Amino acid sequence: MKGFKRELIFITIGVITPLSLHTLKVNAGSFGAEIFCTMRDGGNDHESSWDAAYTYIKKQKGGIFKVSPKQAAAQITESVIRDRETFSYCVEYLDQLHPNRQLIRDLEKEAKRKEKEAKDRDNKRKKLEKELEETNNEISGEFTDETLDRYSY
């Protein structure tokens, strides 16, 4: 019976702990959104507002693993979208939380284009080498050593 009680306690702790950590994460993201939006609405620039909100979210998370900037931005975005009535003035600032997405897409397109151009150049070079080799083989078959000797009259 003692073993059963001990297992029940561990199971209860195992279920409650992740729930409380999730609640803490949601609250941190929500208050981080409130910090970001209030500062932006007050006339602060994006960088100072973002730094304040991100610092708060990092400190509230705790634990071994750190919150990445992408995760923090996603938490703020999620909080603003979930509570649109409260943060209606903040929706216009959300695009600045993810500024690199268009740049990343453009860089990926450019890399694919360059890769395609390199393949096309390589294919064209191989085709020209093959044609040159075929032409040389045809020419070398027409002339003998005797016709190439300049002193043979």
Secondary structure layout:
Elements: H1 2-41, H2 46-61, H3 69-82, H4 100-142, H5 145-148
Helix pairs in contact: 1-2, 1-3
Give a verbal description of the structure.
By secondary structure, this protein is mostly helical. The protein has 2 domains: 2-98, no CATH class; 103-148. It has 5 helices and no strands. It has helices at 2-41, 46-61, 69-82, 100-142, 145-148.
What is this structure, in a nutshell?
Helix content is 76%, strand content 0%.
Features:
153 residues, mainly alpha, 2 domains, 5 helices, 76% helix
Radius of gyration, whole Å: 34 Å
The global form is elongated
Number of helices: 5
Q: What structural category characterises the helix and strand content? A: mainly alpha
Quote the average pLDDT. Answer: 78
